[in-house]
Write a structure and sequence with these properties.
23% of the residues lie in helices and 49% in strands. With 96 residues, it is of the alpha/beta class.
Length: 96
């Protein structure tokens, strides 16, 4: 299991390359990438590489790139947090 989490702010850039290989019978692998952008010029790229050489192996990938979830942010703000505090809470949860 390869699990990456990145939060990019301002002009930060990230390129995440996760590789997993299924070269033996019943080998398992998974690449899980989540990148969140909080700046107007931030950029993120997720590159999953999955390769299988055995018919009984199984490898998968999942990637999500986007902004902070608005619904989560609105819920936290409704409970008294400022926008910046809400973003900080969400980011800490992602990076945990």
């Amino acid at each position: 299991m390869i699990k990456t989490r990145a939060v990019l702010k301002d002009r930060a850039k990230a390129e995440v390359i996760g590789e997993t290989y299924g070269n033996a019978p019943f080998a398992r692998g998974h690449v899980d990438c989540v990148e969140v952008l909080t700046g107007k010029e931030a950029t993120a790229k997720a590159i999953p590489i999955v390769s299988v050489r055995d018919e009984h192996a199984k490898v998968t990938h999942e990637a999500a790139i986007g902004s902070v979830d608005k619904k989560q942010m609105e819920t936290l703000m409704a409970r008294g947090l400022t926008e910046e505090e809400a973003i900080d809470v969400i980011v800490r949860g992602i990076l945990r």
